[in-house]
Every structure is written in C-alpha cells, then in structure tokens.
Amino acid sequence: MSNIVSILLIVVSFGTFFMYVDPTYTEIKALSVEKDNYTRALDNSKKLQEQRDMFLQKFNAVSAEDRDNLLKLLPDNIDNVRLIIDIAEMAKAQNVPIGGFRASVATANANVIGANKSAYGTLTLSFSTSATYGTFLSFMKDLERSLRILDITSIGFSASDSGAYDYDVTLKTYWLK
Amino acid sequence: MDPRFQTSFIPKKPIVAQVKSGSSSPINLFTLISTVLFFAMIAVSAGAFLYKGLLVKQIGGGKASLDRARDAFDPELISQIVRLDSRINTAKALMASHVTVNPLFDFVSSITLQTVRFKNFNFSYLAPDKIQVSMTGQTRSYASVALQSDTLNEQKSLKNVTIGDMVLDASGSISFDVTAVIDPTVLSYSTSIAPAAADDGSAQTNTQTQ
Fold first, then answer.
1. Which of B84, B120, B131 to mutate to test the interface with A (most CBs of A within 10 A)?
2. Cβ of A158 and B77 within 8 Å?
C-alpha cells in the first residue's frame, strides 16, 4: 500500500514537472528577456527624455520669427509661383520689365548610382529683363537681400547704344525635402 | 509421553521483541524520497507560478511606463524639432556655398581701364571651383589691350586669363575677348557680404545703446 502511494507521488511529481514546471520555466525565461527589454527601453527613454528636454530648450530658444524666416530661407516645397511673384515685385519696385520665366527642377545626378539622399531639392529659374546697368545692379542687390536663398548661376548681357541692356539671368533656389 | 513435547527451558523465541530492520528499511526510504520529491515539486511549482506572476506584473508596469514615456515625447513636437534641425543644418551648408554677384561687378569695374569698355558680359557658375567670366572689350589702341591684359593678369582673384580674338573694325576700334576663372572667395557670401552685414548690425547696436 505504502509503495503504491510512493509511486503515485513520484508519478504526480514528474507529471507536475513536465506538465507545469518545465513549460512555466520556459515562459519565465521568455518573460525575463521581455522584462529586460522593457527595462532597457525605459532606461533609453529616460536618456532620450533628457536629450529631448535639451533639444526642446534649444528649439524654444529659436523665436517664432526666426523660425518663420528660416522657413522663407529654405521652404518646405518648391513654391516657384511665389518665388516668381516675389522676383516680379522686386523688378517692379526698380521699374524693371521682367519676363520669360522658365523653371526646371534638377533631377538626381545621372553619374551617381543609387537614391538621391540630398536633404534639399534644387530649382533652376531663368528670366530675362531689360534695364540700365545701374538699375540692374540695384535689382541684383534686391535679389540678394531676399530671404530665400537665391544663387545666381548665370548672367549674360550686351551693351547697347540706347543705354538699356537686355539681361538673361539664371538662378538656383532650394527647398527642404 | 509425547516425544514432541519440549522439555528444554531455553526459549526458542527471543524474549525481547526483535526490531524489524532488514526487509522494511528500503520501503521507508522510497516513501521518504517520493514524499520529499512531491513536496519539492509543489514548492517549485508554487515558486514558478508566483515568479511568473511577478514577471507579468513587472512587464505590465514597464509597458505602462513606456507608453506614458512615449506619450510624453509628443512625436509631433519631435518631428518639428528634427525638421528645424535639418533646416538649420541645410541652410548653413547652402549659405557656406552661397554666391553673390554684386562684388563681381564692383571687381570688374575696378580693374577696367578708363580707355576700355566691355560690351558683352557672361558670368557662369559651373562649379564651386569653376566660376567663369567671359567679356568682349573694346578700345582704341593695342596698347590699351596690352595694358588691360597686364592688369587682368596681375589680379590674384583671376586665373587662366585668356585674351584673344582681337579684331580691328572699320571705325578703328579694337575688339577683344576675355575669359577668366574667378576665385570663389570673391563671390562668396560668407566672406564678402555676411561679415559686412554683421559689422553693420553691431554698429547699429552700438548706436542704439549709446
């Protein structure tokens, strides 16, 4: 009788081990890894929070006006229509007739294999105008004072006896992708 | 007399009850081991159950903390900060290579002789290190062309100065072509305009504070 009970206890013990303890141990190992991951993630989040606070402090140090100016300097999109209007207004202020606007977006460099990872896009804008040399220089100064980055890449003109020259201007401007 | 009748006084059986130890001992050890094993298994099972529960609770707490931390991050604000950082860095890079043409006109005016005039002017920004200017000049004498050539060649800001296509027309004027590559620093916004603007700004500030 005693032997039967003992055998029964051993069977129950082994059964418990294989049916509950062993699978639970496997689960515990997986849960421990998950817990460690959460602990690590929380540690990282604390470090990130410190960095975020630091960046937030710097972000808040930039005034809304400066942020607005930066947006004009390097807009979020091509916005070539706004640019043409701005240039036409500058020309009007100098009493310079302007026209023949041609805009083209620079495509990725054909000599480079792979995706174009440049942070900004480039728009090339050409136009023609006619003015005296002095007026044209004033117009160029106005263009350079523009908040939007305008890199003049080409200027061509010929003198005439009337004093008004015809100018072909090409410039590049940029936007943040 | 019965021959089976025992007359001996020596007892056949021991007087003190004999303690059983030989045959029953293995059974007790087996029982003991099985009992210990059973209770140990119950203890291990309980421990595993409790520890698993503790881990699940800790993971739940960790997940909740992480969710709170994620919400506190405000992804939209982070996106704005990253965008502003990208904008500032890109603008800095673009401003470093930004060119301004007005100093070029001043420069050309300063190196043009009074006896020479330029009829055509072409400026091409081909690459940061290749900014080319080509002009067609007009003068009354070859000596002026030679003097203009010397003046142009003396300029450290001009490289590869080439003067050619000299043509004497019917009116006695001499036309000539000039091509040259300009030192990018002449047209660099960061070296020409920005310091001047900064000086103006500080001068204005000083005036305001006085």
1. B84
2. no
